[in-house]
Each structure stands twice: as C-alpha cells, then as structure tokens.
Amino acid sequence: xxxLNRPMFRTGGSAGTGITSGLAPRQxxxxxxxxxxxxxxxxxxxxxxxxxxxxxxxxxxxxxxxNLVSGTPASNIFxxxxxxxxxPFAKMQQTKAQKSALDQQxxxxxxxxAISQRDKMAQLAMKGPTGMLDAQKKAQIxxxxxxxxxxxxxxxxxxxGEDWKSYSEVEAFVTEQSIYSKSGMYTPKVEKNxxxxxxxxxxxxxxxxxxxxxxxxxxxxxxxxxxxxxxxMYEDIxxxxxxxxxxxxxxxxGSKLNVEGSTAYQxxxxxxxxxxxxxxxxxxxxxxxxxxxxxxxxxxxxxxxTLDMER
Length: 311
Fold this sequence. Notes:
This protein has seven helices and five strands; from the N terminus they run αααααααβββββ. By secondary structure, the protein is an alpha+beta fold. The chain is 44% helix and 7% strand. The chain folds into three domains: 38-126, no CATH class; 132-183, no CATH class; 191-304, no CATH class. The longest helix has 49 residues, at 77-125.
C-alpha cells in the first residue's frame, strides 16, 4: 500500500447554509414606481367594500312585523308602529355598524396584501432574466414541452431524472435555479459533483491502494467519503472516518478471527513498514461494501461497524 501523506477533508461536510447564504440585504423600494400612492390604495379599498351582502333591512322588516302582530296595541296606529319598530331599528343600526367595521378591516387587509404582492412581483420582474416573471415563462415552456410517450425527448426534471408531475414542480425547479444563479451559488447537485470530483483527484494522486487506482473505482470511493460527510445515516461514523485513507487495502484485509460470534478480521502483515491505519478510526472495505473500525492491538484487526439504517 502506498504511503498516504496528504491530509484532506478532516472534518467533512459542505460549505454554505442554504439558498439565501451570501445574498445582499434587501434594498428599499422606489416609492414612485413600486409602492401605490394613497389615491390608488383608497380606490382599491373602496372597490372591495360592500362585497358582503347587507341583510339588516330584511331582518328589520321581519322583526317589525312580528312585533306588530304580537304586541299590545297603543292609542293609535302610529304609536303602535313606533313601539313595534323601536327595538328592530336599534338592532338594525347596530348590525350595520358592526358590518361596516368588519368590512373596513377586511378591505384594509386585502388591499394591503394585494398591493404587497404586486410590489414583490414588480421588484422581481425588474431583476431581468432571473426575475420571477421570467422564471414563470420558462416554466410554462418546459411544461408545455414536457416528456411524454408522444414526446420522448421533451423536458424533464434533470435533478431526479423523472418526468414532471405538475406545473408547480416545474415552476419551483426553475425558480430555484434562478435563485442560485442570481446569488452566484451552486445548486446542491452541482455542489455535490464538485465535492466528489475534488475528492477523486485527491485519491487518484497516489492516495489509493494499487487495486483501486482506476478512475471509476476512485470516484465510487470518493462518493462514499462524500456520503459519510453529508448523509445523516452515517452520523455515527462521520467524525471517526479517516478522510486521508478512506479504504482498506484488500491485501491487508485478512481472515476472520477465530472467535465465536466475532465480526472482526485480522490485518495481514504484507511487509509494509508502518501502518497507515489509525487506532479507532473507521475505514471502508470496497470488497464487501462495509465499514470497519481499526484496532491497532497486536498485528491489528478490522471490526465491523453496524450502522443505524433508520435515520
């Protein structure tokens, strides 16, 4: 096994904290262009008032009629009518006042929401090719040209490799790409590929056993290192994995220890001076796809690691 002497990826993990990392603080609006003036806001509010039906007059007439029929007659018809109308009229006034106040609250909330939404859309549209409106246009084109049985070469989700399930999925995909492009960041898929390529270059630079020195195997081993660094399934071994060595040399992975129930394998002495393995560090065995912890006692041994696959 060749001596590994280039430390790399000791802590693992990826940089960045999300799609908004690195974005500049939001700038103020141009009140003359994006925010509606008081007159327009007032017109919008007025257009929304009165949309809820006013049934207070109907209720007044019903209550008034009931009072006339069931009430005690007064000295004349006018006095009788006035008495019967007194309570229903007060009730109608109260209902109208309550409705007016509620209408005003609803209208203000709706108007503010509508104006805010339009301002946001206008701001995004002004950003040019990465604006929301442009993203929607792209999404619509991709959706209309989606991959189907009659259009096998059409658009599809290049991240998953699967057909689009809905227009909203296409729009979310395009919008995300626009955000990453605008911020100068990479998408998670591209970021992963860059990470694996970097690890592969490190491994190919004389940091792999001769048995695994071809590019295909090196890339597969590099991806294992990436997964250990980023996949929650490997959380238990993430900080124990040896990112300088990665794999066990197949020539050094010996026979199973002659102990009942043991899952440990002896380290072969192949005449290499010094050991590249570190006590209690974890290594990947490319031959069986398992992880092993190295124990330096005696001639050394590799002990199978059982991972919690339910994370």
